[in-house]
Amino acid sequence: MKIGQVAREAGVSVDTVRFYERRGVLPEARRRPSGYRMFGAEAVERIRSAKALQELGFTLDEVVDALHAHDAGGATCESERWRLEAVVDRIDARIAELARVRDNAAASLEDCRAGRCRLTSAGSADHR
């Protein structure tokens, strides 16, 4: 398959296919004498798998590592569960940080409603 067909079937752009090839998500494509990339049908499924992992919260480096572990053989849910645990831990940390930021913003809003606006007095101790 040419790169355009792979991109269409996988639901991504041609640039994404090229990027995934450069980053190791896809193995390097064979080339025709004309220089055109030629991919096997498995490239579409590999891209779909990569996108599914990214939608779960995996970074691109984690996607590459997980796919390479699968390629090496022997990967099982048991042996790979730690990857999902790491993603969940990272998401939980982000949620906690966002909760802290939201609490600070909500407190600032309450101060503003009470006439103690932190926005207009930033850096000035006189107006606090």
Automatic annotation (TrEMBL):
<feature type="domain" description="HTH merR-type">
    <location>
        <begin position="1"/>
        <end position="69"/>
    </location>
</feature>
<dbReference type="InterPro" id="IPR047057">
    <property type="entry name" value="MerR_fam"/>
</dbReference>
<dbReference type="InterPro" id="IPR009061">
    <property type="entry name" value="DNA-bd_dom_put_sf"/>
</dbReference>
<dbReference type="Pfam" id="PF13411">
    <property type="entry name" value="MerR_1"/>
</dbReference>
<protein>
    <submittedName>
        <fullName>MerR family transcriptional regulator</fullName>
    </submittedName>
</protein>
<keyword id="KW-0805">Transcription regulation</keyword>
<keyword id="KW-0238">DNA-binding</keyword>
<keyword id="KW-0804">Transcription</keyword>
<keyword id="KW-0678">Repressor</keyword>
<dbReference type="InterPro" id="IPR000551">
    <property type="entry name" value="MerR-type_HTH_dom"/>
</dbReference>
